[in-house]
Design brief:
This protein folds into three domains: 94 residues, no CATH class; 224 residues, no CATH class; 85 residues. 52% of the residues lie in helices and 10% in strands. It is built from 17 helices and eight strands. The strands form two sheets. Strands 1, 4, 5, 6, 7 and 8 form a six-stranded mixed β-sheet that branches. A two-stranded antiparallel sheet has the order 2-3. Helix 4 packs across helix 17, helix 5 crosses helix 6 and helix 9 packs antiparallel against helix 10. The radius of gyration is 27 Å and the shape is globular.
Length: 435
């Protein structure tokens, strides 16, 4: 008996089956994607609906419900998916994304366009959601922490060109566009209509990018002329990317220089909710605090009482401007250790300090101010770390407006996840009190 072959049930994965289970039945009741859909259903997407031309009486196939596209990108951002092609595949093969689609086929091109074409709507949704949390007392703006991080751009390092090279490329691009137009007019059988249209579109896009690069180069050269003589560069050394003119080379965390954007998030310290989002091509944070405070005021009707930033933000001009606007600045005094070692008081007002700067120095000498400043790392740096964990190391879109749209997705997702955590903590506290 020991040598006889046992009877076994073997897997047969080629056998066809018919199932009568719906997507609703297949997805477990507590799956987090259901919360994403419930959140999206609560949003006012009337601006997106107003843009749809497929209405009774007009030609065209029905458009995809904007709530589906919104929920897909929100859940994809939570999961760290930043590619429209990858998201389109997940919508076909992954149960959670299939449940969001509900049988609606979604292509990668539609997903890509939706992600970057509605920055104004995303900004409005961020404003409305934060304003609602202010009304509920979740966000107070008593204390806001701001921090920047450099995010790799979609341009390559070799795409940066001087003015003379850009002019040569522009001439070549114009000739290419003209040649393609002439080819269509002279020889209709040279290629299919679709192929010709694709070639013309690619050539025109390249020409547009080069023209934008030339305009950006002129802007940088003008700004260079306005700098003090000690800071002026040789105009011939200024370069601009022909792939993404709004991108610039920045020093990254590993010490190398790469094309990147300077991403700024401002976070309410008490709640951990993002209240401001911005992006610039400047490699330093020295001029980033004042515009952020102004943005928060425009968004929510008032400025934060206190602003927490690191030493890279704390220039004299910034401190004066922000404190004159009504926000008390908490930032470390530069070269504090060196001055202490030399027997100097880094917190004593210096010759030439304005009243605002002198007050800041004196304030940062107190233990109370130092304790307040410690909250910056656990707030602003935590927000940036959350974005990194969701894949914000590189943006695959070009241009500041599209990059800003991507950042607004991250901000909306961050606030959604943070609000869930706050609600769960509140429910736990209520349950503990009852018990």
């Amino acid at each position: 008996m020991s040598g006889m072959k046992p009877r076994l049930l073997y897997a047969n994965r080629c056998q066809g089956e018919f199932r009568d289970e719906s997507l609703e039945e297949l997805l477990e009741p507590e799956h987090p994607v259901r919360d994403v859909w419930a959140f999206v259903e609560s949003l006012d997407l009337s601006d997106l609906l107003a843009k749809i031309k497929s209405i009774p009486g007009n030609a065209g196939t029905p458009a995809i419900d904007p709530r589906i596209l919104m929920a897909l990108w929100m859940y994809a951002t939570i999961q760290g998916v930043g590619s429209s092609r990858a998201l389109a595949e997940l919508a076909k093969n992954h149960l959670a994304y299939q449940w969001l689609c509900g049988g609606v086929a979604v292509g990668y091109h539609t997903l890509s366009d939706f992600r970057t074409e509605h920055a104004e709507v995303l900004d409005r949704l961020l404003t409305e959601s934060v304003a609602s949390m202010m009304h509920q007392g979740v966000v107070t703006l008593q204390r806001v922490a701001q921090d920047g991080m450099r995010v790799r751009g979609a341009a390559g390092s070799s795409s940066f060109r001087r003015g003379a090279t850009i002019e040569e490329c522009l001439q070549e691009a114009r000739e290419q566009v003209q040649a393609l137009r002439s080819q269509v007019d002279e020889d209709q059988g040279a290629a299919s209509r679709r192929e010709q249209a694709a070639r013309q579109r690619a050539a025109q896009e390249r020409l547009d990018r080069l023209q934008a690069a030339k305009s950006e180069l002129q802007r940088l050269q003008q700004a260079n002329q306005e700098q003090p003589p000690c800071r002026t560069k040789n105009p011939e050394t200024i370069r601009v990317s022909t792939t993404d003119p709004e991108c610039s080379k920045m020093k990254m965390a590993d010490g190398g220089f790469r094309p990147a954007f300077n991403v700024q998030f401002a976070t309410d310290v008490g709640s951990g909710i993002i209240v401001g989002v911005d992006v610039s091509r400047e490699g330093t944070d020295s001029n980033q605090m004042a515009p952020m405070m102004e943005q928060i005021e425009n968004r929510l009707g008032r400025r934060p009482d206190e602003g927490l930033v690191d030493g890279g933000f704390a220039t004299k001009e910034t401190i004066e401007q922000v404190q004159n606007g009504g926000t008390t600045v908490y930032a470390p005094v530069r070269e504090e250790k060196k001055q202490l070692q030399a027997g100097k008081d880094p917190y004593a007002p210096k010759k030439g300090d304005s009243d605002e700067v002198a007050d800041w120095r004196v304030r940062m000498a107190t233990s109370e101010a130092k304790e307040i400043y410690k909250q910056r790392a656990s707030t602003a740096e935590w927000t940036n770390a959350q974005a990194r964990n969701r894949g914000l190391y590189q943006v695959r879109v070009r241009g500041r407006e599209k990059v800003l749209a991507v950042l607004l997705w991250y901000a909306l997702v961050h606030n959604f996840m943070r609000l869930r955590q706050l609600h769960k903590a509140q429910q736990t506290q209520s349950s503990d009190k009852e018990n």
